[in-house]
Amino acid sequence: MKLRSAVALVVLAEFCLIAGMAWAQSPTTGQITGVVKDPSGAVVSGAKITLTSAAGVQREIASDAAGHFAFALLPPGTYRLETEKAGFSTVTTEGVGVRITETTSLEIQLQVAAQKAVVEVQVQPPLVETESAAHGTVIQQEQIRQLPLPTRNFQQLLALTPGTSGPVQNSAELGRGAAPIYVDGNRATSNSVVINGADANSIGTGSLPNLAVPATDSLQEFIVQTSQYDASQGRVAGGIVAAVTKSGTNNFHGNLYEFFRND
Fold first, then answer.
1. Which of 8, 151, 220, 262 is most exposed, with the fewest beta carbons within 10 Å of its own?
2. What's this model's pTM, rounded to 2 decimal places?
3. What distance in Å separates the CA atoms of residue 23 and residue 17, rounded to the nearest whole number?
4. What are phi and psi of 184, to 5 degrees?
């Protein structure tokens, strides 16, 4: 009886761990994980980490007994982290980027404070995603804005991801014109499309319908995951196309463009 109870507890613990990992991010969010250490390299527990978005929204957590922390389900964008612990200088980490479906890992090192001081750190984005086995390419707003699009339909950029292909597009319809994409040799109807976490598949075709195509100016970024994505994003044999629109900030901003096509 005791053996059965022990096995049940182990299974329950594994289930909780898997569930926690699955909820850490969604097809249109990312996460920040990290560890807090002191100058000797020992982990620091109980450090308060405050996350602030570009819109001024804040979230607070504390590092656990192993010095680890995690901010899950974060919209893509740039964040600032402030790490505080009694006896140490406050560390401000600027420019922490979060990309769709990806995990940003940090190592925050606190310095012993002889007097109150603030240490500022600039974060460089990682070149390789090391926290997930999923294959895909994030197309960010700079690329969406600067690459030429005959119909201003972001679907024409889906084939920038390795392992994908698509036909030459008809540029006769401004802002429309369906753009089928073939991922790893699968049919165009074998993909799944998610916009801001909502299913945007065309009923019966499994592709992105014209009426659901967001304007390129409204997109923050998107990704085409071609393989090795987890069960929370699966259910199809092809690729996962996930897009997220821009969110607000505390600054007034806007844009203006001219669309000129010479006959």
1. 262
2. 0.72
3. 10
4. 50, 35
